[in-house]
Amino acid sequence: MEQNRRDSVFLYVLFLVMFVIAFGLSISLSVKAMLFPILTAVLGIGFTSIAILGYVKGHRITSWYRHNNNRRAIGNARGNESRQDVMSMLIILGYSITCVLLGPLVGLPIATFLHVIVSSRSFVLAIMLCVVAILIMMIFNTQLHVAIPRGLLL
Amino acid sequence: MTSSLVAAGEGFLQILSWQFIGFLFLSVAIGSLFGLVPGLNSIIAIALFFPFIWDMDTLPAIALLVPLVTAVHTANTFPAVLFNIPGSPSSAATIIDGYPMGQKGEALRALSAAFTASVLGGILSAFVLGLSIPLLRPFVLLFAAPERLMLIVSGIFLISTLNKGNAIKGIIAALVGFLIATIGMPPQVSELRFTFGLNYFMDGIPLIPLIMGIFGVPELIAYMGRDRNTHKLEVSRLTLSGHAQMWQGINDTFTRLGVVIRGSIIGVVIGAIPGLGGTAAAFYSYSYEARGKSSFGKGDVRGVIAPESANNASQGGEMIPTLAFAVPGSAHAAVLLSALIVVGFRPGISALTSQLPLTFTIVWAIILANVIAAGLCFLFMRRLVVVTENANPLILAPIILLFVIIGSLTASASYWDIFITLVIGGIGYLMMKTEWPRAPLFVAFVLGSMAEKYFFLSYEGYGWSFMLRPINLIILLVLLLSALMPVLRRIMNQVWRRVRLGAE
Fold it and tell me: Cα B282 vs. chain centroid, distance in angstroms?
């Protein structure tokens, strides 16, 4: 039952859609280029169909729905865990957006500062980690010469 | 054989530079931190090293990458023994007897026994890896494109089906990995596939955003969500002082060398089978030793020695298919393999011919890393406990996030890298929460282009009859047997039960 709850229709459907898109796109290109993807897509559609059939046959969708409702009603530790995960996802999203808007050299230290000050309310810790972030970015920019052009950072 | 000995000697000389030793120490120190902090593991450690190794020569990159796994496997014993939490999944079996030992005030004995067993297991497995190279060499050279294709497919099949959870889920995930690998320009014709008109996808999905997305982001989300108070324990209550216990632990291991050797053999064999890895090896070794012994589970030191030796020995085992056949034995071996490929190491035939000294450098690095990791853990035992106790996601998460974002940007310095990391991170997170295996997807992605190249060469050269070549038929038979094994076992059990009922 526990496994049933965790199984996700969403992912099966997502994967089926991926295979169908791949299969659909395959048709327009030459066989030489597409033989491998077509084989993969055919196998993928086959296996995903078997999985979905097994899922429905075992009435897993209904049990999954019921469990989900129970979970919502209970609102226990698992709910808290999900909330924490959502918060963590939002933090990662926030970092990414700040980096894209301001550029990584400025964006990453600012995102770090905001993240730490909001979650710990400690100004000293936020400043400290912000300085660490600036140092790390400077090392990347000047010392290691990784594949980030200076223009992008500055 | 002579050339292998010469290469082993050359490999040894290569590790004797200050640069190599320095990087190795650094790597062991950082790897130990990742092992000490519950929630972090060797996959994230290697993934976060990508931005640093991108521009490096092969030799220093080996010194940075290979010891990470060893150090994590060694240091993850601390939280297992002291806090009843595995530092990483492979130390879960150590908890069963390690934690009761800690509760009895024998934490130091358990830890020193674990470190001694780890270093012995690691060294033994590295020797097996070194010895297997000259033995595998003529065998690997026999392999043409069809056999290599079949080997890749069989490796991915094993990773998909032997992984915990549903085998069909594993196979679907692997097929998605193959499909993602086909994005961009195919190896045989100049025709773009699945790019949707975007230039970014012309060379396919870059490796680093995929690693960061599929492993880095989901693990980080889970890590940030951890309640750090769950492992607040009174360490002071646990005996962590006095040399007597430390020597007792070392003595325990040396007087039970049989347990270490059995654990190491189990570790090497299980590690060499793609899809099983260190966690399975540790549990198998533990259950093998625990058979019929009531003292296990109540703080028996053999219950610490067995999983720890198997756990560290699995690294040498995992490296056998990874280096010889380019088929990684586990998720972290796959990430390590892709990192080694990035810095110019070529697994397979090159690793056993032109790059043989480098392959032996990896073997020596494993040996040296095991010794240094265990030495560091012995020397700084009390200080390292403080790291586990005070590891705060609030401080570590922003720093790891920095590396995740910088790491993803190193792929092509485009904002698309961040976008792709986020999208794949979202899918990876969903897969983690719904218990879909991520390793088959990643391994299939890494080996996808190679598989397609061999598929094309095989099909052009032999048509569909490439499947009927003798080695391929043997591999197919083994795969079929492994796939049908659960069904066969069930049928055999039913027949056996009926026979017994009939006899009664």
Answer: 13
What local confidence, expressed as pLDDT, does residue B74 receive?
84
Contact B125, B73 (CB under 8 A): no
Q: What is the 3-state secondary structure (H, E, C) of B74-131?
A: HHCHHHHHHHCCCCCHHHHHHHHHHHHHHHCCCHHHHHHHHHHHHHHHHHHHHHHHHH
For the ranges A44-58, B56-70, B142-156, B263-277, the maximum mean pLDDT occurs at B56-70
Distance from CA of A78 to the nearest CA of B (A): 11
CA-based nearest distance A66→chain B, Å: 16
| Helix B356-379 and helix B18-36, axial crossing angle in degrees, nearest 10 | 50
Could you tell me the residue range of the domain that residue A102 belongs to?
77-153
Q: Does the predicted interface ipTM exceed a cut of 0.85? A: no
Choose the closest CB to A146 out of B55, B225, B398: B55
Task: Residue A140: list chain B partners with CB under 8 A.
Answer: 51, 406
Among A74, A89, A111, give the residue marking a domain's end: A74
Nearest-10 Cα torsion for B168, B173, B176, B177 = -130
Nearest chain B Cα to A6, which residue?
B434
> Which residues of chain B are within 8 Å of residue A79 when distances are taken between CB atoms?
none
Q: What are phi and psi of B185, to 5 degrees?
A: -85, 125
In eight-state DSSP terms, residue B193 is B
B189 → closest Cβ in A30, A99, A133: A30
Residues of B in Cβ contact (< 8 Å) with A100: 415, 418
For residue B388, the model assigns a pLDDT of 66
Query: Are A69 and A82 in a shared domain?
Result: no
Number of domains forming the structure of chain B:
1
Examine the fold and report which residue of A29, A49, A74 is the final residue of a domain before the chain moves on: A74
Q: How far is CA A48 from the centre of its chain?
A: 21
Q: Confirm if B414 and A148 have CB atoms less than 8 A apart.
A: no
> What pTM does this model have?
0.78
Q: Is B412 an 8 Å CB contact of chain A? A: yes
pLDDT value for B411: 67
Q: From the list A14, A22, A92, which residue is nearest B221 (CB)?
A: A92
pLDDT (tens digit per residue) in B66-111: 888 888 888 888 877 877 777 677 777 888 888 888 777 778 888 8
The answer to the question of residue B485 being in a domain is no
Task: Give a yes or no: residue B474 inside a domain.
Answer: no
Domain that holds residue B323: 2-468
Decide if B96 is inside a domain.
Answer: yes
- The nearest alpha carbon in chain A to B426 belongs to A89
